Amino acid sequence: MTDAKETQETHEFQAEVGKLLELMVNSLYREKEIFLRELISNASDACDKLRYAAITESGLLEDDPELKVTIALDKTARTITVADNGIGMNRAELVDNLGTIARSGTEAFIEQLTGDAAEDAALIGQFGVGFYATFMVAKRVEVFARKAGETEGWRWESDGRGAFSVAPDETASRGARIVLHLRKGDDEFLEPARIRTVVKTYSDHIALPIALVGEDGGPETLNEASALWTRPKAEITDAQYQEFYRHVAHLPGEPWHTIHLHAEGRIEYAALLFIPDMPPFDLFDPARQHRVKLYVKRIYITDECEGLVPPYLRFLRGVVDSSDLPLNISRETLQHNPVVAKIRGGLVKRVIAELKKKAEKAPADYAAFWRNFGAVLKEGLYEDESQRGELFEIVRFQSTTSGEDWVSLADYVARAAAGQNAIYYISGGDPAALRKSPQIEGFKARGLEVLLMSEPVDQFWLPAVGSYRDQPFRSVTQGSADLEEFAKPAAPDGEDKDKDKPVPLGEVDKLIALVKLTLGDAVKDVRVSERLTDSPVCLVADEGDLDIHLAQLLRQHRQHTPEQKRILEINPSHALIRVLVAMVGKAGATDALEDAAHLLLDQARILEGEPLPEPGMFSKRLADLLTRSLET
């Protein structure tokens, strides 16, 4: 027989794990009992995985079919042992799972660390940080594990200070047995009463028995051992919902909203879903995967059932348990299963209905949800035509008249100006910048509300949707403004009513002709603007051309965009344009006017966030123009 010491391997922890363990070892966190919550949660997951694997490989369960978690206390040795008979781990999995960041919640925890010991310790209770929480109470941790279906067992050991060892072990049985050698001062966790309280508080929802074995006998089952989602809502406390949320979501905080339902009829299923109160760190991962677990008759199947929850609801966390799916269904065929499709339809309708209720009854609360997940929910506007009408009722926007509040489309249409037959919007990256955009000046002056489309997703659903209640969405940066029928309010008494009076169009036409000739192919056209009141110029896209901000977005994502010239609009009421009009035809003014034409275009580009094609020439022209103006 080979001596275990001869085959023992020593590994360094991943840098991020080392940082985490340093915090655990020196933790100031007072509620250290969460280490037990984390170990029980991991053990439950391991049993779920084995139960699923045994559907197709029944032999995996033969020698020990009753899945469970056991807690053993030894006051003499000062150890706590948490064991499960689940899926277990082999050598490679011990190294990977316990030596590197392998759980999303742990990774999110690392991202939140500030370097302040007190602040970072306060995060522990929220995130839990899985297995590593054991080092808050243990000076040394041993893990004895054997993978189901394999014959070789392994022993993992570490004091949490930079390295760990792995060696073969003949005593390891199927599953994992974690032995915590307690530090001085943490003897409270050797008391059965303390363990009972911790399990009842944090792990009563676990759907398999958690048994306590002490020096005075046992085992004693400590939890209800029933799936929380199968129990009547009246029997479940808010604290139990919250602990289950942390168990299933691996997120801190409390659920923003809980949806617990039992569907009966042709298709029967139970669902316990949570909407988090903060965005998960992987919310915008390109894979767009949800984190809702699918169970069949209380047996865990997968958390990657693609057809169960649409991508635009991927912020949901929780479980769905079906009575109508076969236990031996493969994960590959789930996506096209008609039962899954019907469950999905029911879940989507229920979630949207719950959000609609929240939006109507608690708008301030709903605004918090919208800030977190609105951009994701809007993906459904172009992906799910069947629910588009319902989604339209719960989407929210900021606007030129809303301040920091959020506007519904129904409210926008209800308060539209007389004769207004379109929903005006402007798109871009920053609401504050959009509120100052020159293209909205004419709309604001006429009391026309403009929606601020400040998220990239807006550029995709708007072209796909087209209209709401027969009102087309119309970009204020595209095509003609068509504002003649909306009168500007009269100037207040005492103001110069001729201050903003435009110069005669005949005189402006001469300036436009000169600007066109000077700029040539740099612009598609030059014309008088209806949309400007305070700014001298702006750029707009021609009708049918790509919206300016959509083109910018596509370029940022390195997508090919066709080269399209823009239209330069000038404001004949602006003082600068008045001066330039007066200069046309004067002797010696040609050079200054040509410089001014280029500067007007560059100014419009800057306002749109467009790069200047010739920064050096812009600087020279500006310097020359300033010099001439200061010399006169």
What percentage of amino acids are in beta strands? 15-25%
What's the level 1 CATH class of the largest domain?
Alpha Beta
Per the principal axes of the C-alpha atoms, what is the gross shape?
A: elongated
By helix and strand content, what is the structural category? Answer: alpha+beta
User: If strands are numbered along the chain, what order do they take across the biggest sheet?
Assistant: 1-6-5-4-7-3-2-8-9
Any key phrases for this structure?
single chain; 632 residues; alpha+beta; Heat Shock Protein 90; Ribosomal Protein S5, domain 2; Four Helix Bundle (Hemerythrin (Met), subunit A); 9-stranded mixed sheet; 5-stranded mixed sheet; 22 helices; 37% helix; elongated
Architecture overview:
The protein has 632 residues and is of the alpha+beta class. It has 3 domains: 4-221, Histidine kinase-like ATPase, C-terminal domain (Heat Shock Protein 90); 228-363, Ribosomal Protein S5, domain 2 (2-Layer Sandwich), CATH 3.30.230.80; 505-631, Heat shock protein 90, C-terminal domain (Four Helix Bundle (Hemerythrin (Met), subunit A), Up-down Bundle), CATH 1.20.120. The chain contains 22 helices and 22 strands. The strands form 4 sheets. Strands 1-6-5-4-7-3-2-8-9 form a 9-stranded mixed β-sheet. Helix 10 runs antiparallel to helix 11 and helix 21 packs across helix 22 (615-631). It is elongated and about 105 Å long.
